[in-house]
């Protein structure tokens, strides 16, 4: 199925000829498209006002609130794509996993998965489990017009690490103990998570998302051989599961410079690159046939405007000659970032790359 066609064979959507979609398809663009990971959230005062007194996971289940938060950076920054406001653990919560997102800590799982018997916690995800997602995306597509909406989910490896560790970790010792010591259990865990992730992405695409991104936030903790053996198969299963929809699929991880070629093999159309590897070198590692996304260091935005523009120019220069380039940060927007710096950055990229 082509990227301009829905699963039901409907006519092309209004987003098809947008700069973001063209870049993802490695086609000529009127300007380099820009969006930011974590643009819908913590750096915006209007976000904090909208979410005042409402917990993170609760926020993700309120369609009107989700739509408002998703739209805020589009209105303010004039970015080329919206990203659905959610969290990678939302589908886990939806199937009954006892977890919460604790301020200043992150997701915390009450009963970590450490044994085969614990796999019983992972049932299939149904559209009814996340009906609020379908409703929110319906609201969003009605408002966004020709601006694409990016849906997203966590990659099986990262979700598995949270579930096994019970929360954020710097060493992943419990997850790696299973990965090395009981590879069959590890495979079965990631296989189930691949099905849950794919189901969550399908809900978003069928509701109207124009593209999807899979976040493998913790994949950088793996050596290439371990990634190939213990993470790549599950991620590839996710990308295969949504291939038939014809929407661009983006794959991003942090600290994954040594894994870029393998991440390209997993099947995405666009590979996200963090700030540690220049885009021209990333293109060499990923190989032909993929667009790249990235990769300004998020901390650059704390420097004076002249310095931000100089570093942005470096990124754009290294992107010249790429088959397709979507400008982004090399990780998410930091909470204390000046929103005006993001607005200026979007305008600068658009102006500098206009054809």
Describe the model.
- This protein has 355 residues and is α/β, with parallel strands linked by helices.
- It has 15 helices and nine strands.
- The chain has helices spanning 19-24, 45-50, 56-59, 63-77, 90-94, 131-144, 156-165, 173-181, 183-207, 224-230, 232-243, 260-265, 279-286, 305-319, 339-353, and strands at 82-83, 99-102, 106-109, 149-154, 211-216, 249-253, 270-272, 291-296, 325-329.
- The strands form two sheets. Strands 1-4-5-6-7-8-9 form a seven-stranded parallel sheet. A two-stranded antiparallel sheet has the order 2-3.
- Helix 13 (279-286) links the parallel strand 7 (270-272) and strand 8 (291-296).
- Helix 4 (63-77) packs parallel to helix 6 (131-144).
- The longest helix is centred in the middle third of the chain and has 25 residues, at 183-207.
- The two termini are 30 Å apart.
- Mean pLDDT is 95; it is low at 1-11.
State the main characteristics.
355 residues; two-stranded antiparallel sheet; seven-stranded parallel sheet; disordered N terminus; 15 helices
